[in-house]
Structure formats: structure tokens, C-alpha cells
Amino acid sequence: PFRNMQRTSDPSAVEISGEKFAEKTLLRNAACAGCPVGCIHLGFVREKFMEPNQYLYRQVSYDHEPIFAVGCMLAVTDPFAALDIMEEADKVGLDVMSAGVALAWATEASEKGLVSTAETVVPLRFGDAAAYQQAMWHLARGENEFYRLLASGTLRAAKRFGGEEFACVLGQEMAGYATGEVFFVSQALGLRHSHLDSGGYSFDQKHTEKDAAKAVDFLITDEASRCFLTAMVSCLFARGVYTEARLADCLKAVGYAGLAENIAAVSKRIQGERWRLRLATGYEPERVEIPRRFAEVVTWKGPIDGQYLSALKTEYSRRIRSLATEAAQTGGTDAETRKKRKEE
Prior knowledge:
Blueprint: H1 18-24, E1 26-30, E2 40-50, E3 54-62, H2 64-72, H3 79-92, H4 96-111, H5 117-120, H6 129-141, H7 145-151, H8 154-161, E4 169-170, E5 172-173, H9 181-189, H10 200-206, H11 212-231, H12 244-253, H13 257-260, H14 263-280, E6 298-299, E7 302-303, H15 306-343
Antiparallel strand pairs: 1-2, 2-3, 4-5, 6-7
Helix pairs in contact: 2-3, 2-4, 3-6, 6-7, 7-8, 9-10, 9-15, 11-14, 11-15, 14-15
């Protein structure tokens, strides 16, 4: 996604590719304690703080999502400038993905005359990294009504100032994948409205057919496996390492043979309980709206198919309700069984 997803490709985007970041900014790789993957990338920003030649450098971690949010979405194509914006977001405690997407919307709203510097304080222009660094602070502090609304969600600001149709929000601010209908629906309706719920973006990249049932089958199956992995307190970046077979070996090694032999059933139970709770607290997947900007996207497969998008929403909503209903029925049976055992 580029320039608030006004387009999905740009010649200058190569300057903030992973390869360019590695070539220009990568200081070292790191890993969380005990992790065999080592996916953390630490970039550096060099800053001259005194003449003639006094410098310091700062370490800033980065990966695909922050690069998308403050690079592509804001049309900032200097990797060092992107790291500066990421660091500002970290300093003020903002989620860099949501903040970047929010500022991308604010920039387009400025271009369209819906807001002015009376709201944004600093002029927002795509590519202006220095302005975005300042805007991060205004957003974090809730400098005025505009930034207070924007800090509570891009759609809230859009409802007040206009521009809902180009707010890149799928339940919450979008993740960095303009891959197509399956991803858009998976984040919009997903449990956490996150790209981590299931690999809808992966399905888009590997399939050209428009079979809603097949796509939703993938989302449901993939989500279940991720439920178990996260319940094991594993990072999803390690899902290629911790396969079901390896997880079973790990569990057996520490005495949980019964759990190791029932991973699939436990995964589905966790998944169903999550959806049961989400629906019980008022969530209605059928009512989720996907802003018009997502229907205007052109992917590697061509323009977005509105009918396919609608079919996916309908099928995914139906399956979500089915999972929740099944969990509620199973939960009731389990509760009765536990009660009988207690009485005995």
C-alpha cells in the first residue's frame, strides 16, 4: 500500500525494501531469549550533534509492518527518515502501525481540503518525514480535538471531518498487505482485526480462483493452528519452526503426552471459545463495513472483485457464528459433566 493506499505500487518503493534497509541501515540482527529464529532487525540512525565531527547513533528496530506504516503509507522513501519516524512513535508510546495509517489518512484529508493546519498543526504532505515526526508528538499528546479523535481511531476522526471512504481501516488500522479480497475480509472480520489472526494475505498471493468457501476453510484452519501456538506462548514469526509435530515433541518431553496427542482438538476448542466470547460481548461480524478505498485497489490479480469480497464476508460471518455456537454447546456439556463429577 502506497500513499494511503491510493496505489499499490510505486517505483520509489524499492528504496525502502528489506534489501535496501539491510544494505544501508542494518546494524545487527537479534533474537528474543531462547528463540532460534532471530528475526529482530536493528537499524541505526547517525546524528551529528556538534561541530566539527561529533556524532552519535541510535538503534531502532524495524520489520515489514513499521516500514509499511511510516514508509509506504506516508510515501517516505528514505530508510533513515523512516527509522526516525519509527523512533518518534516508540518514544511517545504509539503503535507505529496504527499511527502511520492514521497520519496517512490525515495527509489525504489535508490534500482534499477536509482538514487544514488548524487541525493538523503542522502541514502534512506525503514524503515530508520531518512533519510526520512532529505529528507523532501531537497525536500522542492529543494536541487538539482533531488529534484526540485521531488517537482514538482513524474512523472516529473520519466520521467527524469526513473521508470515511478512504480510511484504511479493517476493524482497526490495516496491516501492510494490499494483497486482495481474502486478506481484507480476514482482518476486517478477524477476532483481533489483525493480520496475525490468519494468513489471508498468503492465500491471496497463492490463489487466483474465487472460491469463497475454500478461502474461508483456509482462514478457519490456519486460525486454529495459530490459536494453539499462541497459547504455547510462541511468537508467530516462529511458526515455521514450531510445527505441530515439534510442539508435540516438546509437550511430551515435559510430561504432557495427553495434550500432545490432542493438539488439533485443543486448537479448535480454543478457537471456538474465543469466538463464543467475542459474540457474547456484542460482536456482529455481518455489520462490519469495509471502506470504499479497499474496493478501489488493484492487486497483481487485477481490480478487486466486489462480488467476491461480499461472498467472503457472508461466508466468514456464517462460519464465525457456527464456531461460536458449537463452542457454546460443547461448553455447556462440559460444565454439566464437571458438575456431575463434583457431586459424585
